[in-house]
C-alpha cells in the first residue's frame, strides 16, 4: 500500500535477517532495507521470551537495550511515521519494546503506529518494569487492531483510552492471485470498488445486444445511485464495424444513466483480438451480475460460466435455450427481441423501454441486496481490498494525528 502511494519506505530488520529469504513485495527495489544492530562485542543478542508480568531479566538485557536504542535513533531520525508490528505485544520482543521507548525520548516528533494482530493479552493486576512495557502506553502512539470488536480489549492491555486505538482491517489482495491479463484490466479499469460489476464476453455483433447490457446497467445506476461498472470482453465481428458499434453501445449506456468511464472494452486496453477465456472466468469471480440479452443462443455456455462464479443471472426469456437454462439456474428473466425456431419475436414496451428497464432494475437490486452470498462476495471485493483499507483506514491514520 505504501509503495503504491509512492511513499518512501524503509524496513527495519535484525542485522542477521537472511536477505536470501526475501520474496513477493519484499523484492521491490523501492524498499530500503535497514539492519538494526543485534550483537554486542561480536556476541549475538539472543532474544528471550519475557511474557510474564514480573520477574528478572538476564544480566545483559539493559546493555542490549542501549545498543538497540542507539540503532533505532540512527535509522529513524529522517522518518515521519514508524509502524510497529507486535513489538509491544510479543514477550520475545521485550528488548525491542524497551529500546524503542528509550529511542523515542530522542525522537519527540516521530509518530508511532503499533499494530497488534494477536488477541490482546489480559492486563495483569501487578506488573514490574521492564515487563510492564507490554502493558504500558508509549507517548505519541496509536494502537491498531484488525477488528472493532477487539478495540476495548486492546485499550485495556495498554491502559489507553479507546480514542487512541484504531481499526485497520486485514486486506485480501484478490488481484495477486489472477493472471497477468486480468491484472492488466484491474490496473486500467477501476471496478473493484463498484457496487455492481458486470462482465459480458462475446463477439462484437449486434446479435449479442451489447447495447442492451449497457442500457440496463445505466438504469441500475440511475435508480440505485451506486457505482456501476461494465466490462465488455469483446472481439471483432464482420457483421458491423467495431468502432461504430462501440459508439452506439456507449451512447445507449450513457443515455440510460452510465458515464463514459463506466464502460470499458478489452479491445481498447490491449486485447484487440479477444480476451483469454481463462481470464473471463477469473473476471466472473469478481463480478456480481451477468446480463445476457442475446438475440439468439443454441445453449449459452457463458451463462454457466457466470453462474459457476456466483453471479446474479439476467437472461432473455424470449430465447428458448436461455429460458430453458435459466429455469434450471433460477435466473431472473427479462424480454428482448429474439429468434425462435422458425420465427423471430419483437418486444414492445409500455409505457417505454426506459421505464421497463428502471422497473426491473429496482427488482434486481432488491433481490441482489437480499442475497447473502452475493452481498458477502461484493463486500469482500469492495471493503477488504488493499485500496479500500488504504484509502479509508491506513492513509488517514498516517496523516491524521
UniProtKB/TrEMBL annotation:
Domain of life assignment: Bacteria
UniProt key word Membrane: no
GO MF terms held by the record: glycosyltransferase activity
Domain Glycosyl transferase family, chain residue ranges per copy: 193-323
Transferase found in the keyword field: yes
InterPro entries, per the entry: Glyco_trans_1
Pfam families, alphabetized: Glycos_transf_1
Gene3D superfamilies (UniProt xref): Glycogen Phosphorylase B (3.40.50.2000)
Keywords, comma-separated and alphabetical: Glycosyltransferase, Transferase
E.C. numbers: 2.4.-.-
Record protein name field: Glycosyltransferase
Species in which this protein is naturally found: Gottfriedia endophytica
